[in-house]
Hints:
Layout: H1 6-25, H2 37-48, H3 53-61
Amino acid sequence: MDDMSEAEQVMLFEFGRDVFNAAVSAGYLTPPWEMSHDGYVAVHEYMLFHFSPAQTAEALFAVRH
Length: 65
């Protein structure tokens, strides 16, 4: 992730913020919560595959049974 341009890092941060908001809205997370480096890596991968923030939140945080 160190090889990302400043613009790409801003896009990732904003997308990560939108994922967090979607996860809170869906009840997957309760603030306060801070994303780890590994979390940003996973969010970046979903962003590259054009997932929406809501889809990414579900993929990362929804409980599957």
